[in-house]
Amino acid sequence: MYALLDGRGVAYLSATPGAWGGHRRSRIYGRLDCRSALRALARGGYARHRVFFADEATAVAAGYRPCAVCLPARYRAWKAGGPSRLPVTSEGPGSSVL
């Protein structure tokens, strides 16, 4: 079982692993292969604040913002208009839609 966060930021168990990762303290979400997150994990300390989401819409609903490194277009949209104007797609983290 995998521990994921729901749209309220509450943890639940899922048989399916999360498609998106996040950092609980900084409230940032991004791709699981994000070079910035992987670098932070390698340095240590980051893992205890790591969270996972089933999809991008859930991460946004939980109050997380897009990562500027692995989601630059989504980050710029968030920065320009705030979370209420953030475009969210139903496609997975590898999607080129936006």
Which helices and strands appear, and what pairs or packs with what?
Elements: E1 2-5, E2 11-14, E3 20-23, E4 28-30, H1 35-43, E5 50-53, H2 56-61, E6 65-66, H3 72-81
Parallel strand pairs: 4-6
Antiparallel strand pairs: 1-2, 3-4, 3-5
Strand content: 15-25%
Summarize the biggest pleated sheet.
4 strands, mixed
Q: What value does the Rg take, in angstroms?
A: 13 Å
Poorly predicted spans: 94-98
Mean pLDDT reading:
87
The chain-level structural class is alpha+beta
Number of helices: 3
Number of strands: 6
Q: What's this entry about, in short?
A:
The chain has helices at 35-43, 56-61, 72-81, and strands at 2-5, 11-14, 20-23, 28-30, 50-53, 65-66. With 98 residues, the chain is an alpha+beta fold.
Question: Can you walk through the features of this model?
Answer:
It is a single chain. By secondary structure, this protein is an alpha+beta fold. It has three helices and six strands; from the N terminus they run ββββαβαβα. The protein has helices at 35-43, 56-61, 72-81; strands spanning 2-5, 11-14, 20-23, 28-30, 50-53, 65-66. It has a four-stranded mixed beta sheet with strand order 5-3-4-6. The protein has a two-stranded antiparallel sheet with strand order 1-2. Residues 94-98 have low confidence and may be disordered.
